[in-house]
Amino acid sequence: MLAVPGSSPRFLEKAQTLPVDEVFLDLEDAVAPLAKQEARKNIVGALREGDWTGKTRVVRVNDLTTQWTYRDVIEVVEGAGEFLDAIILPKVQDSTEVVWLDTLLTQIEKTMGMEVGRIGIEAQIENARGLVNVDTIAGSSKRLEALVFGPADFMASINMRTLVVGEQPPGYTEGDAYHYILMRLLMAARMHDLQVIDGPYLQIKDVEGYRRVARRAAALGFDGKWVLHPLQVEAANEVFSPSQEDYDRAELILEAYEYYTTVEKRGAAMLGDEMIDEASRKMALVVAAKGRAAGMRRTQRFTP
Ligand code: GLV
Ligand code: MG
Predict the structure, then answer these.
(1) Which tens digit of pLDDT belongs to each residue from 118-176?
(2) Are residues 257 and 217 in the same domain?
């Protein structure tokens, strides 16, 4: 999920060429207050005229404590609603904020003669209140497609004593300071069948650091992570795809399980040294689905 500042025509151009699944064109923290109006125009133009083939097109508006949000939504959706897939609402603190955006989108869609309900919402969770309310936020609108973590704002809001987003705060050696937050988001997202996306890693040149932090979220079950720079794109695509070995194994389990349950009519069976059953099939499906989505090919076949 590539972050693109709406104030930069050059980045809006470049973003179209990068192999990412989603772009979000930013009106919020990557855009200075005095550049917001211009950024809205740039974004409408880039959505209408750009080639975003194969990418989910998203705009991040300003949060509801500012004066900008309503104009962000109205200008972008009236100007380019049919070229837009979703809106990210940042710093969401409770469900009423999502309901507000849902209602505004419905009114604009009706006014413009667009399909009502097509434009989705991603809720970004960036402070303690948002995290504590995350279950009701996640269930607050049919338009919701994803929960997105905002680690920089989050760390600031809880007074975590660190300046490096994604890394452990100095002095904390007992475990992973992010574990609770990531798990909390994951549970709320899965409860409501939403995707869940990890936020940015700001040390752009440290691609190994990016990989390490991305692996943590991918291992827990996150669906993706932000990238801020072309250098991070390859690492993200690699980390969020299964290894060839895991992908092969997952497809093998699915094939073997199908054979044992239908041909041999057995619910549990041995595959090499491993016992597989219905729960193994479900785990294998998760890995296989990610591999298929990434266009991976099998290099092994099952023989009974
Ligand atoms: C992103 O918005 C962040 O606050 O980390
Ligand atoms: Mg933020």
Answers:
(1) 999 999 999 999 999 999 999 999 999 999 999 999 999 999 998 999 889 999 998 99
(2) no
| Residues of the chain where predicted confidence (pLDDT) is lower than 70 | none
For residue range 94-111, list pLDDT tens digits in order.
Answer: 999 999 999 999 999 999
Q: Is the CB of 77 under 6 A from ligand 1?
A: no
Is residue 214 one of the residues assigned to a domain? Answer: yes
Strands 56-60 and 86-89: parallel
At which residue do the structure tokens 């700001």 appear? 202
Q: Which atom of ligand 1 is nearest to the CA of 154?
A: 4
Residues 65 and 187 in one domain: yes
Q: Is 153 in the pocket of ligand 1 (CB under 6 A)?
A: yes
Determine which residue's CA is closest to atom 1 belonging to ligand 1.
150
Q: Which atom of ligand 1 is nearest to the CA of 200?
A: 5
Classify 13 as helix, strand or coil.
helix
Query: Pairing mode, if any, of strands 2-5 and 22-26?
Result: parallel
Prediction pTM value: 0.94
Q: Which ligand 1 atom is the nearest neighbour of the CA of 226?
A: 1
